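[job 0417] fold request received: DUF5753 domain-containing protein
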Amino acid sequence: MDIGSPKHHGYVGLEAEAAELSNFEPQLIPGLLQTEAYTRALAKVLPGAKEEDVERQVRVRMLRQERLRHEHPLKMWAIVDEAVLRRAWGGRAVMEEQLEHLLEASAWPNVVLQVLPFDIDGHPAIAGSFAVLSFPEATDLGVAYLDARGGLFLDEAADVAWYRELFDHLRARAAAPERTQTLIRKAAKELT
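[job 0417] inference complete; emitting C-alpha cells
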C-alpha cells in the first residue's frame, strides 16, 4: 500500500487516531513493522516509481511507525502468511535485517505477531490483506480497511464485525507467538 499517495491519507489519519490495529498480510510485512530498506525495496518495484516518490513513501512509513513506540502506543496484532518471511524483497541482507526487526518488535509489549505456517490446511482470508482499526471511544465500532483498488473503508457494524471474526479465525489458526519466533529464525537461516 503506497500510503504516501493522497488516496491513502484517509487510512493514515484513521490509523493515527486508533487505539488498536488488527492487520492481516498474506504477501508483505505489515507496514508498521517494516524496516526502511524493506519499504524502499517494495516502493522501487512499482511501475514508474520515481526516487522522490520512493523516499516520500519511506519517510511516511517511518513516521507512522512512531505510533508503536509512543508514550501511549498503538496496540498491534499482526498476522502474516509464512510466505511473507521467505520472499526476500531487496535481497538477503535487507530481508535478514527485516526478520531481525520482526523478532525485536514481537517482543514489544504492545505488539503481537503471528505467522500462518505452511503446515496448516488453509485459512479463510483468501480475499487478501485487511486491517481492523479500533478507537478509544467505546461507542465507536471501528473501521475495516481493505487495500483493494485504492482502498475500501467499511464502517457498518456488520462489516466491521465480520472482519473482526475473520481475524479471530486467523488468530486461532496461526502459530502462537513463541512458535512464530521460531518460524522467523528458521526463515532467516534458510535465506538464499
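[job 0417] notes: Strands lie at 20-25, 75-81, 111-116, 130-134, 143-146, 152-154. Residues 157-173 form the longest helix (17 residues).
[job 0417] exit 0
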